[in-house]
Amino acid sequence: MSGSMMGSPGPNEHETVGAYALGILDDSEATAFEIHLATCEWCAQQLDELAGMEPMLAALADLPGTGTPAIGESLSAKPSPRLVEKLVDDIGERRALKRRRSFYMVAAAAALIIAGPLAAIAVNGGDSGAGKSDEAGAKAAFTTISDKVSATDSSTRVQATVAMEKKDWGTWGVVELSNVKGPLKCSLIAVGKNGERETMSTWSVPKWGYGIPNAKTEQAKAPLYAQGGAAFQPNEIDHFEVMTFDGKKLVAVDA
C-alpha cells in the first residue's frame, strides 16, 4: 500500500488497515489498531473501501499453488505479508478505477440533465432577458437543424416536429409543438429501439395553449419550442413521444 499522509502517525500503522480488513490480526494487534483508527480519518476511509476483502482471500484457496488457507480457515491462518499487500493494492486500484468511472458517468448524466429537462424552453414563456435569449436560441436551433421528423395524432390532433442532431454524447433535439391546449405539463421522450425511454425535455402548457390556429391572441397562435438531449445516438432511437405528466400520449413521431 502507499505510504503515510502528512500529519499521520506513520506508515506501519496505516499499512495495518489491510491486515485488519482481512481479519488476520491477533487480539492485541486489533485492539491497538482500533485505538489508532478512532483518530485516523485516512485509515477509516481505507477500511471502508477494503471491506469485504476477506472473502476474496478465502476464494483464492481454490486456486492451485497459492498456499492460502482454505475457506473457513482464513481468519485463523495468516497469509504472507506480501500477499496481503498485493491484495490490498489490487483492490485499491480496482476501486479507484470504479470511482473514476462513476465520476465520468455522473458528469455525463449531469450534462444530459442540464441539456435535457432543465433546458426545456417555451418560446412564449418567461419575461427575463435570459429567458428570451434562450427562447430565441431554441427556435433558431430548430430552424438550422436539417434532420426533422413530423407527425399529427389522429385523436388529439396535436402536431409535433422533432429536429435531431447527432452529438458525441448522444442526440440533441428541438421539438416544435402545435395545436395543444392547457393547462398541461408535458415531456418529450425518446424511445430507443431496445425499448428504453429517456426524457429529453419537460415544459408546462398554459391554459391558452400553443400553436392554436384560430386563437384570438398571437401568443396562443405561436407554437412551442423545447430543446433537450438523450444518451441515444440518432440511429438508436425508434420514435419520440410527447406525454402528459399523468400518462396521456399526445403524439408519437417516428425517428
UniProtKB/TrEMBL annotation:
This is Putative zinc-finger domain-containing protein. Pfam families: zf-HC2. Keywords: Membrane, Transcription, Transcription regulation, Transmembrane, Transmembrane helix. Signal peptide: none annotated. Residues 17-44 form the Putative zinc-finger domain. Gene3D superfamilies: Anti-sigma factor, zinc-finger domain. It comes from the Bacteria. The chain crosses the membrane at residues 103-123. InterPro entries: Anti_sigma_zinc_sf, Znf_put.
